[in-house]
Specification:
A hairpin with a 5-residue loop joins strand 11 and strand 12. This protein is of the alpha+beta class. Helix 1 crosses helix 9 and helix 1 runs parallel beside helix 10. It has a single domain, classed as Bira Bifunctional Protein, Domain 2 (BirA Bifunctional Protein, domain 2, 2-Layer Sandwich), CATH 3.30.930.10. It has a seven-stranded mixed sheet with strand order 3-8-9-15-12-11-10. The longest helix has 22 residues.
Length: 292
Amino acid sequence: MSHTDRAAAPPGARTAWSAQDGLATLRGPATGLLHALDDVLTGWATARGAEPMTLPPLLPAAELRKLDYFQNFPHLGSTVSRIRPDRLDQDSAKAEADPVPAHDLSDATHLLPSAACYGAFLHLADRSLGRDPALVTTVAHCYRNEDHHDGLRRLWGFTMREIVCLGSQDAVRAHLDHYRTAVAAFADRLGVELRRAPASDPFFRRDSPRAVLQVLAPVKEEFLAPDGTAVASLNNHRNFFGERCLIRYDGRPAFTGCVAFGLERWLHVLDLRFDGDLGAARDAVVAAGAPR
């Protein structure tokens, strides 16, 4: 049995997941499938020499400003604040279950990540890379203030695995070409129909030459399921992060690119493909992801 939103299932029904207000809860079978999928993707990355990284769960607002985040993605940002010291007593005295009012909060100095790779670029800031391109992989709980939610297809908080390449322009292109083929082959082995489509993110400032170039040579490509769910994306940042974060390769700003996977979105697609049998879906993922 498959549902767009398992929260709508009848009381007492055995459900693998539920989603409410853009926040998902995964039970055992769904959690097992998510971990199996992430193990496959991590294996792809490490087999090619990527360094696994665990990055901070919060991003400094001041650093994101340097990346034009608030010009390009202000609608997605989830800020993190705290109750002001002078308002602690007043807030704790409230018995009603109301939201914490804005005037009780300190200014927000950090944000929850809306993509996993931001932390990697900030970590590598002001460094010179070695002779070979750098490959890193990370997984993160990411958050986006979407204008609506839809089961596992569109969540406020979700899990993203990324595999990132930093180096020359050619190295980034080869990285993206490799995973374009790998994702298509993986989906084919799972019996999941995916199509590729160009996508447009407001990554570069609208008045920049790179924004014009993006129209001529798209920098983002998505893999879409038949219902339109984007389960993976290929992203070519050109030398944007290299310039803004002062990451150098061969004496110049490094080019960067990443492949990103929305794990809950894969769960949605696999739930449909295997008609709700997530144990069978997990076995298929493990088999399809085995080295060849």
